[in-house]
Amino acid sequence: MKMLSVLPQQCLLLLTCLLMALEAVPIDIDKTKVKAEGHVEGEKVENPDTGLYYDEYLRQVIDVLETDKHFREKLQTADIEEIKSGKLSRELDLVSHHVRTRLDELKRQEVARLRMLIKAKMDSVQDTGIDHQALLKQFEHLNHQNPDTFEPKDLDMLIKAATSDLENYDKTRHEEFKKYEMMKEHERREYLKTLDEEKRKKEESKFEEMKKKHGDHPKVHHPGSKDQLKEVWEEADGLDPNEFDPKTFFKLHDVNNDGFLDEQELEALFTKELEKVYDPKNEEDDMVEMEEERLRMREHVMNEVDINKDRLVTLDEFLRATEKKEFLEPDSWETLDQQQLFTEDELKEFENHISQQEDELRKKAEELQKQKEELQRQHDQLQAQKQELQQVVKQMEQKKLQQGIPPAGPGGELKIQPPAEHKAADAAQHPAGGDQPLPPGHVQEAAVRTDAVHP
Question: How far is CA 257 from the centre of its chain?
Answer without folding.
Answer: 32
